[in-house]
Amino acid sequence: MTLGPLADTGKDGRHLLTCPLCEAMCGLEIHVDGGRVSRISGNRDDVWSRGHLCPKGASLAAVHEDPDRVRVPMIKVDGEWRQVSWDAAFRRCTELLQPIIAEYGIAAVSSYIGNPTAHTFSLGRYIGMLLGMSGIPTSYSSGTVDQWPKNLTSHLMYGGWWAIPVPDIAHTDLLVIMGANPAVSQGSLLAAPNINAIIADIRNRGTVIVIDPVRTATAAKADEWLPITPGTDAALLLAVIHTLFDEDLIRLGAAGEYVDGIDTLRAITADWTPQRVAPATGISADRIRQLARQLANTDKAVVYGRIGLCTQEFGSLASWLVDVVNILTGHFDRPGGAMFPRATAWSLTTQQLPGLEGGRPEFGRWRSRVRGAKEVLGQTPVSCLAEEITTPGEGQVKALITVAGNPVLSSPAGHQLDEALPTLDAMIAVDCWLNETTRHADVFLPGLSPLEQPHHDDLLLQFAISSVSNYSPAVFFPDDPDRPDEWEILIRLTGLCTGTPAEAVDVTALDDGFFDVMCYLQGLTGPEIRARYDHGGPERILDLTLRTGPFGDRYGENPDGLTLDMVKAHPNGIDFGPMVPQVPDILSTPEKKVRLAPQYLLDDLPRLAARLDRRADELVLVSRRHLRSNNSWMHNFTPLIKGKDRCTLLIHPDDAAVRNLTTGDSAVIASATGRVEVPVEVTDAIKPGVVSMPHGWGHGRAGTRLTVANGSPGVNNNILAPPTFIDEPSGNGAVNGIAVTVEPA
Ligand SMILES: Nc1nc2c(c(=O)[nH]1)N[C@H]1C(S)=C(S)[C@@H](COP(=O)(O)OP(=O)(O)OC[C@H]3O[C@@H](n4cnc5c(=O)[nH]c(N)nc54)[C@H](O)[C@@H]3O)O[C@H]1N2
Ligand SMILES: Nc1nc2c(c(=O)[nH]1)N[C@H]1C(S)=C(S)[C@@H](COP(=O)(O)OP(=O)(O)OC[C@H]3O[C@@H](n4cnc5c(=O)[nH]c(N)nc54)[C@H](O)[C@@H]3O)O[C@H]1N2
Ligand code: SF4
Ligand SMILES: [Mo]
Q1: How far apart are CA 699 and CA 646, in angstroms?
Q2: Where in the numbering of this chain does the 4Fe-4S Mo/W bis-MGD-type domain appear (predicted)?
Q3: Is the C-beta atom of 407 inside 6 A of ligand 1?
Q4: For residue range 152-199, what is the model confidence (pLDDT) as tens digits?
Q5: Confidence of residue 3 (pLDDT cuts 50, 70, 90)
Q6: Residue burial 28-42, b: 16+ Cβ < 10 Å; e: rest
Q7: Are the beta carbons of 724 and 135 closer than 8 angstroms?
Q8: Before 584, cis peptide (omega within 30)?
């Protein structure tokens, strides 16, 4: 097939764009005709995704064209939004924030950083500036209802909070998936192209087992579904490890030389027998033993755990033990097992945290003011934010900056935050929609659409199963040529927090300073490197991170090495091949060893033991995702929302029968924090005793500008999530495994 040349930004014709929406990073073809998108398809020549795309990527035109998408900055005057110039919007930020900082200090300012910051070209590269250089002492993020346990266990085991082993699904013969639904999510902390096809390939040559309370789309395609009681994965894994020791199945392989703590593990798992954990987990002792044997006796095998393992009561223990099982069965740092990716460009996000270098187990260095929650890896649970806003006293949060987030829907007991936000003295939102959270802002600073900015991933490359690089220029110019990119907005807000009026911030100077820090991390002299560039911004950072990455030219040291120019010359991307063994180089512990049994995690085992003896809850609630949703924010696009109501409660026929419920009935679900009413879907695709609701719904609120979403609002499951129901070691919100009751409405 011969394809025409690529069109330049703003021109009609064929554009290539890496989809920024999820970890699949699909290469798309965007066809523009008469200044508008006429068609979006998968780019078959993309070296990574080979033509794959999903309905969300195919809907990027709807995202771009959405009349509700905010394109002009706004300030709120007497409760009404008024469109203003950028200069006026930044001046308003100054007017609001400066007096608060003058009176109460910077500790009265906080920020909330949402999920899309990990996905967009400029936010991903500059959010580190706001977090690291603004002086804001306490920031909150969606990270503490997501991967915090995995960050914690990687920090403790490997000395790097983002040194996260990824299952080498392209080469494994036995894949055990726990608490993840990649058929829908497309992979998480696991960036792979067309993951469904890869899983189908594993089945052709081997076996896929899914351990999940729900027979998900992934489980339906697997060889076996093992329904598990939510929150008991750590117990299951301890029994697997017990069996490995008991039956002499430990095979460390080449990595063995770099592993510390085997004897401790043997001792602590001695009484975690399969018989002991079987009743609580719902998986028989025989099946647990057999699972251990399968893993030990398959040359290429790997266990993968994700959001269902992290966002639960024992998220840290479960996340840790997944890695331990992979290591003990010899499926670590070798093809087909759990491996460390080699990203073509490094990310500032994944650098060591100041004061915690080398995996130091020092947490609780400070505690949240109201609840006394301990800081872990620099953050306290996002569920603390509401009380920090509403509780008076020294250190009360008076001003909030939100960047690409919707914590009113996405965080535990978000309804309490919804009530707290209007009491702030000032709120600034960097977002693209007036959602359930940003409607409370005083200033709204809109970001560009995904088609108005270039793309090259940053954080997601750190989880990619092969080392790829792919740059795509913007498809369109912004409607207003003077519109700042989001990185510039973040620089101005950073400057404002450190004392300069936002409108007067010297953007170039701060950008240069930030770049110099990144150069310093690589042992380079910033001003010397800067002299090579005639522009700053994320492109300069991208060039730096590529050139100083594992394949880079290091500014001429390796003359054939990678540069951004080289990537740009390959519009279908460059692939440097699959993951390769990296231990011990990847380890950042001072002794260059993997710590198999960190004391901080061992200290949590008694809590798990107590869980086994706890009386079973009547019903527990878990969350789910849908292929055509993206957390809370893609419900406003007609192509994605049409079809039957997705915001339903899945319930097993036995549980439905005793409550007189049939499909279509409305039920009231209640927990310790709240109650919601939701239509019921009776199905045998769920374990008895468990019910499931999707997250990210609950639209239809006054002041939002989400015309389509508000027509199919659904209800919010996080109303049911108690703010103090957390994974203790990490502080991560446990939005799965919530005790609930269900009865007819
Ligand atoms: N019950 C339950 N709760 C959960 C989860 C769950 O499984 N169950 N999952 C958790 C997880 S894993 C996550 S990551 C969080 C997500 O939590 P959040 O990040 O708080 O929520 P999102 O729905 O991703 O909202 C992102 C917002 O960013 C805005 N946005 C989109 N693109 C851009 C952009 O380019 N620039 C800017 N500035 N803004 C943009 C949109 O308006 C959108 O509202 O939710 C968590 N909450
Ligand atoms: N289409 C789509 N794709 C997405 C997103 C989206 O909203 N929509 N969100 C993106 C984001 S931010 C993330 S973090 C990823 C998440 O990607 P995944 O980790 O694949 O997340 P989910 O699809 O929510 O699957 C979590 C599974 O955990 C199960 N589960 C719940 N509790 C437990 C438990 O205690 N034990 C076990 N074993 N299982 C449990 C649930 O039933 C569910 O099937 O997806 C990303 N991709
Ligand atoms: S799977 Fe869909 S949302 Fe994810 S990158 Fe591909 S097209 Fe985009
Ligand atoms: Mo997430």
Answers
A1: 13
A2: 12-68
A3: yes
A4: 999 999 999 999 999 999 999 999 999 999 999 999 999 999 999 999
A5: low
A6: bbbbbeeeebeebeb
A7: no
A8: yes
Residue 406 CB less than 6 A away from ligand 1: yes
Residue 49 three-state SS? coil
Other CB atoms closer than 10 Å to residue 224's CB: what's the count? 13
CB 210 within 8 A of CB 222: yes
Q: Report whether 602 contacts 22 (CB < 8 A).
A: no
d(CA 422, CA 426): 9
Under 8 Å between Cβ of 312 and 178:
no
Rounded to the nearest whole angstrom, what is the distance from the C-alpha of residue 661 to the centroid of ligand 3?
36
Rounded CA gap, 639 and 463, in Å? Answer: 30
* Euclidean distance between CA atoms 434 and 426, whole angstroms: 16
What's the number of CA atoms in the CB half-sphere (13 Å) around residue 534?
0
Q: In angstroms, what CA-CA distances link 226 with 188, 419, 454, 683?
A: 21, 41, 43, 16
Mutate which of 17, 49, 54, 472 to test ligand 3's pocket (most atoms within 8 Å of Cβ)? 54
Q: How many whole angstroms from 503 Cα to the centroid of ligand 1?
A: 28
Phi and psi for 466 in degrees, rounded to 5? -140, 165
Are 550 and 580 in contact by the 8 Å Cβ rule? The answer is no
Contacts of 421 (CB under 8 A, 6+ apart): 389, 400, 408, 427, 437, 440
At a CB cut-off of 8 Å and minimum separation 6, what does 33 contact? 12
CA nearest to 282, candidates 239, 233, 227: 227
Counting from 1 in the atom list of ligand 3, the atom nearest the Cα of 24 is 5
The residue whose CA is least distant from atom 34 of ligand 2 is 230
**Shortest-distance atom of ligand 3 to CA 22:** 4
pLDDT digits 0-9 by tens, 655-714: 999 999 999 999 999 999 999 999 999 999 999 999 999 999 999 999 999 999 999 999
Residue type present at position 141: S
Q: Which residue has the tokens 């060893």?
A: 593
* pLDDT for residue 2 is more than 60: no
The closest residue, in CA terms, to atom 23 on ligand 1 is 632
With 70 as the cut, is the pLDDT of residue 625 above it?
Answer: yes
What SS3 class is residue 40?
A: strand
